[in-house]
Amino acid sequence: MIARDVELVIVEDGNAVAAATAKRLARAVQEGGNVVLTGGRTPKQAYQQAAKDAADWSKVELWWGDERCVPPEEENSNYGMAKKALLDNLEVAPRAVHRIKGELGKEQAAADYERELDDTQLDLLLLGIGPDGHIASLFPNAPTLRERRRVLPAEAGLEPFVDRVTLSLPTLRSAADIVFIVAGEEKADAVRRAFMEKPGPETPASLVRAESGKTTAILDRAAAAKIEG
């Protein structure tokens, strides 16, 4: 199904979303390039499966779309989750792992990450969608949606209420291949607004489309309940 410049891939459940995402990651591992990871329960499943499907990640460099300003070993760290689910289970590590150092505080971490990212071309970008329609740490109607810098300090729009660091809208849109990963009925309204309605800042996910590449959304039936048919 095509909906407003997005290919919608609808699968049975969250496990199937994770499996499809793992397959896309395995392909990226073979192709090489810069891969941007996201946080969340379904991505965690995908990373666990991807580690089994592709043991050698030496052709890719890993980045993150956003991070909470916590130490990497804390449970709320997106990097920490990916390390346990993916990195610790690989036979051959990625060419490079670019962690957002959230423990430095949002301003310093954002500035450091922007210097590290520089003009890197992002090849594959994974994104979740929050029940409120947010993506990365870009929340509805937040001033960060108008920023042009590549990496931004941000405030939380939902729990856990800790400072964040996030890629900006222009940076997200610059990725060659954008893949939304969404599962669960609590996301159904946000999915409808993101992919079926007029884009606007009240639904940040509606504002992210690959400028010169492909945008895909892998949805389970629960998340797609308000758009099917």
Report on this model:
This protein is α/β, with parallel strands linked by helices and 229 residues long. It has one domain: Rossmann fold. The protein is 28% helix and 21% strand. The protein has 6 helices and 11 strands. The protein has helices at 14-31, 41-53, 78-85, 106-117, 169-173, 188-196; strands spanning 2-3, 6-11, 33-37, 60-64, 66-68, 96-97, 124-127, 151-154, 164-167, 177-182, 214-220. The strands form 2 sheets. Strands 1-2-11-10-7-3-4-6 form an 8-stranded mixed sheet. A 3-stranded antiparallel sheet has the order 5-9-8. 45% of the residues are buried.
CATH architecture: 3-Layer(aba) Sandwich
How many alpha or pi helices?
6
Q: Going across the biggest sheet, name each strand in turn.
A: 1-2-11-10-7-3-4-6
Secondary-structure element pattern, one letter each: EEHEHEEHEHEEEHEHE
Overall form: globular
What percent of residues are in strands? 15-25%
Distance between the termini: 10 Å
The tally of domains stands at 1
